Amino acid sequence: xxxxxxxxxxxxxxxxxxxxxxxxxxxxxxxxxxxxxxxxxxxxxxxxxxxxxxxxxxxxxxxxxxxxxxxxxxxxxxxxxxxxxxxxxxxxxxxxxxxxxxxxxxxxxxxxxxxxxxxxxxxxxxxxxxxxxxxxxxxxxxxxxxxxxxxxxxxxxxxxxxxxxxxxxxxxxxxxxxxxxxxxxxxxxxxxxxxxxxxxxxxxxxxxxxxxxxxxxxxxxxxxxxxxxxxxxxxxxxxxxxxxxxxxxxxxxxxxxxxxxxxxxxxxxxxxxxxxxxxxxxxxxxxxxxxxxxxxxxxxxxxxxxxxxxxxxxxxxxxxxxxxxxxxxxxxxxxxxxxxxxxxxxxxxxxxxxxxxxxxxxxxxxxxxxxxxxxxxxxxxxxxxxxxxxxxxxxxxxxxxxxxxxxxxxxxxx
Length: 414
Ligand code: PMP
Known about the structure:
This is Acetylornithine aminotransferase. It is built from twelve helices and 15 strands. It is of the alpha/beta class. The longest helix is centred in the C-terminal third of the chain and has 22 residues, at 314-335. The two termini are 22 Å apart. It binds 4'-deoxy-4'-aminopyridoxal-5'-phosphate (PMP).
C-alpha cells in the first residue's frame, strides 16, 4: 500500500466512510479494477490469477452473463407478484438438477436469506426450535444465523448445538454418531431438533469434505429425531465439487437445499429448494415474499449461469481437471513438512503446519507470498491454518500448474 499513493488515499477514505467492520485481504491490499475469466487486474495494470473466488463460478465478467444481465435490465425488471416466464424457467431448470423429491424453488437475494428461510420452514413444519451445526460453521449474517455460525468465535444462539466436523480418516458413521449424541444433549436441555444444517464442504471447518456418505448417515440421524436435513450449498453448489451439488457425493437427498454465491456469478441471487411435502406443509399456514428475490434481471442472470455451466461442461471440468490438480497438490505433501491436501472438484483445503498455533501464521505467510507472486488464495479453518484454493471453474490446466508452482515456492519460503 505504501508505494501506491492512490490506494493509500482510498484506504483512508474507506476506513472513514465504511468504518471498522470491514476487512481487507492481504498484508498489501489489492486495489482491483477489472476482472476477466480467472484473472483480476489491479489499478497499476498488474494481473493476478484468481484461485480464491467461487462466486464468479463461470469466470469474472463472463460475456454471456453480462449480456443477459444488460439485455434484461433494458427490457423489464420487476418482482414475482407479476407472471413472467424467467423465474419459472429458472425454477424449472434448478429442479431438473435436483433429486425428483424436490418440488419447488423459492428465490432470495443471498445465501443468508436462503438459510434464514430454511430455518423458518424447519421450525414451522417440525414445531421444534433446535438446530445442529458443525463446530466452526458459517451460515450467514442474520441474527439467528450469526448464532448458528460459530466460526471466528461467534457465540452460539439459543437452542443451537454443535458437532465436530469429520476428522481425517474418520469413518462415515462418526458424524452421525455425534449428531445422535448431540440430540441426546439437546433433550437434556429440553430442546427438540428442528434441523441439521451443514455446508456440504464444511468450508470454515477447514474445507472438510468428509468421507463419502457421512452426510447421508447424519441426515438419517436427524430425521429419526424428527428434524430436517438442510444442505447449505451456498459454497459447494453449482459444480464446485465436481457435481452440480456437493451433497450428491454423499448419496443423500436432503429435505431443503439452500443456494447463493455462485448462482448469479457475482449478481445477488439466492434460492431455496424443498421437498414437495415440506413446502406444502409450510405454505399451508404461511407465505414468503421477497421484493428482489426472483426479480426478472436476477433470473436472467441465473439462467445464463446455468447455460454456461452446461455449454462449457464446467461440472465435468471441475471433476477432471480437479482430479489432476488434486494429484499435483498431493505431490507437495512429499516435498514439504506438515502439508495435507483435501478437496473435491475444484475446492481444496491445504492444511499447513502441524495444527499448532504457529500454523495459522505460516498459512498467512503463504497466502501473502502467493499474492506477491500474483496468485490469489485464502486461508480458513478453526486455526486459520488451511489454505483455501477455489478458482473460478473455467480455470485452465496451465493455470492450475501455475497455482501449484507458486504454492510450492511459497511453502518453501514460509
Ligand atoms: N452459507 C455458507 C456456507 C457461506 O459460505 C456463506 C457466505 N460465506 C453463507 C451461507 C452466507 O451467504 P451470504 O453472504 O450470501 O449471505
